[in-house]
Amino acid sequence: MERPLDRPIGHSTPGRCAAAAAKDPTPCEGSHDAATIVDRHGAEVAGCVHHCARLLACLDGGRVHPYVPAGHALDIYSRARELPPFAWEIGK
């Protein structure tokens, strides 16, 4: 269920990490470069744990970069598993 996320991935807006979708109103949690998500084509984007999880839930074949600390990676996978794709469109 992959589709464009309102702006090119990796282009952050002031005060938000690069993994945050433009239409996602939720704030970042922690460091803006806490983790990196890799899509099925190898494109990478760094972001906070919160927005990395939300991005991962949207990607078909996405994964957490192998050099992300295990605690962050587990948190991202756990959060993404509970989210529908494009969660901000339904108020989550």
Give the number of DSSP strands: 3
Which geometry do the CA atoms define?
globular
Estimate what percentage of residues fall within beta strands: 5-15%
String of helices and strands: EEHEH
Radius of gyration, whole Å: 12 Å
The main sheet orders its strands as: 2-1-3
Termini separation comes to 18 Å
Most strands sheet: 3 strands, antiparallel
Q: By helix and strand content, what is the structural category? A: alpha+beta
User: Percentage of helical residues?
Assistant: 10-25%
Enumerate how many helices there are, as a single number: 2
Model regions low in confidence, pLDDT < 50 over at least 5 residues: 1-7
Instruction: Report the average pLDDT across residues.
Output: 88
Write the layout of secondary structure elements.
Blueprint lengths: L34 E4 L5 E4 L1 H10 L4 E2 L5 H12 L11
Helix pairs in contact: 1-2
Report on the architecture of this protein:
By secondary structure, this protein is an alpha+beta fold. Helices cover 24% and strands 11% of the residues. It has 2 helices and 3 strands, in the order ββαβα. It has a 3-stranded antiparallel β-sheet with strand order 2-1-3, covered by helices on one side. It starts with 34 loop residues before the first strand and ends in an 11-residue tail after the last helix. Mean pLDDT is 88; it is low at 1-7.
State the main characteristics.
single chain, 92 residues, alpha+beta, 2 helices, 24% helix, globular, disordered N terminus
